[in-house]
């Protein structure tokens, strides 16, 4: 059996009891090293397997092998495992192992969009789109097209992976794509380490967001045409009709 | 002090310890009657205030008055309070009370998109857009425009509030808007009561989704151009470049 376990933002008090139960019932816990390290204090009596970044496919194969050998495996994923997480890849790898009878359960968690939004106020309170700025597996042209169409549709836009060492420029390019449609005064914000140690955030106009120095631990929210800053918090109203 | 507390999907084991702590520290718990009823077994020693649907503004005013009278108030919201929930309205109401010094914290939770996706497989594993089909506060023309642009951008689309007693027809119209861009064979699915008692789900092509009889307890996911059904689960790959 494989449990794909969402760990939420990273604080011990934001992981669900269901996720903790699955970890307790597992024989082996496998995941990206940072997440496994986070679990050490509570689960050091388990077999823990730390896997490196970019070894995701290998990690899923190892989880499958362990399950085939009769262990209960917990594959952990930060935030929600189903949002830019490990759930999809694990199901794809299992599909290649014909005739296996491995049981899989997916345990949801609090995704970064929600943990970051709670820090910024209530910016996601209407229709929103999430876009990852990582172009490792997605052509940049498609990312930019999505941003432009999301802006035209007046979606609130939540950016995952807004920057990394190899991609310094993509936040600026993303902001410029949105600004071709939406004004530079649009309330925007970023949160670093949302819901965990070292949490910081900033609310600023879209025109200034493009010059911020962000990294993989940050999540960005760009408001829609109705988003306002009230008492230093981003707030998107529930609807449009109240204005008429 | 007001804590805006996300209850997650509704099961006792999917509410975060941080949310439970906030409820324990409150003097009064106020919320939509269904959510307050859900809390009765654990919190019947608290003052519980059940509020009816469509009384959201009144509910927030009452929460503010209670806080001004010195109580610690927990305003509860299903799923994540920041996603079509109570967080935005509460901040808007507080903004109208000039000079108040009410402290507010927002506690995130597992939103329906994530709890429903975990039941269906891993459909949200790439960029996605959430759209509420409720036209109470948003003109239907804008909802339809968003669906069309989201389909053109190849976002996975998650529908909140796909139907209600007064809006039997909107799911069919939404599916037709997406089908003008994306094929009728696109893997889609719905979940009723995701993560709580009475959970059921169905995976089916987009062309058949439009005729399903859904209600407010359902969440819908429509795949992107890459979404596949593997072992009766919806799976969206992490990217596009692997195909090249």
Compact description:
2 copies of one chain form a homodimer. With 244 residues, chain A is an alpha/beta fold.
Overall description:
Two copies of one chain form a homodimer. Chain A is α/β, with parallel strands linked by helices and 244 residues long. Helix content of chain A is 32%, strand content 24%. Chain A contains eight helices and 13 strands. In chain A, the strands form three sheets. Chain A has a five-stranded parallel sheet with strand order 3-2-4-1-5, sandwiched between helices. In chain A, helix 2 (33-43) links the parallel strand 2 and strand 3. In chain A, helix 3 (56-68) packs across helix 4 (87-96) and helix 6 (140-152) runs parallel beside helix 7. Chain A is elongated. The mean pLDDT of chain A is 95. Chains A and B meet through helix 1, helix 4, helix 5, strand 6 and strand 7 of A and helix 1, helix 4, helix 5, strand 6 and strand 7 of B. Strand 7 of chain A pairs antiparallel with strand 7 of chain B, so a sheet runs across the interface.
């Amino acid at each position: 059996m494989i449990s794909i376990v969402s760990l939420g933002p990273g604080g011990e008090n934001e992981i669900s009891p269901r996720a903790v139960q699955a970890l307790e019932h597992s024989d082996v816990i496998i995941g990206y090293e940072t997440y496994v390290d986070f679990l050490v204090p509570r689960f050091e009596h388990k077999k823990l397997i730390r896997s490196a970044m970019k070894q995701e496919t290998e990690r899923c194969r190892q989880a499958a092998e362990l399950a085939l050998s009769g262990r209960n495996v917990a594959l952990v994923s930060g935030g929600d495992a189903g949002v830019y997480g490990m759930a999809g890849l694990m199901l794809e790898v299992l599909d290649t192992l014909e005739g296996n009878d491995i049981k899989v359960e997916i345990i949801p968690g609090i995704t970064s969009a929600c943990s970051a939004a709670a820090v910024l106020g209530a910016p996601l309170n209407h229709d929103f789109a999430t876009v990852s700025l990582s172009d490792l597996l997605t052509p940049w042209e498609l990312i930019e097209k999505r941003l432009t169409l999301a802006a035209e549709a007046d979606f609130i836009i939540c950016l995952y992976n807004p920057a990394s060492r190899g991609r310094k420029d993509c936040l600026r390019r993303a902001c410029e794509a949105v600004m071709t449609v939406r004004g530079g005064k649009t309330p925007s914000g970023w949160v670093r380490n949302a819901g965990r140690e070292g949490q910081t955030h900033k609310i600023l106009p879209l025109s200034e967001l493009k010059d911020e120095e962000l990294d993989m631990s940050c999540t960005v929210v760009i408001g829609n045409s109705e988003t306002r800053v009230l008492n230093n918090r981003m707030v998107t109203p529930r609807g449009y009709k109240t204005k008429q």
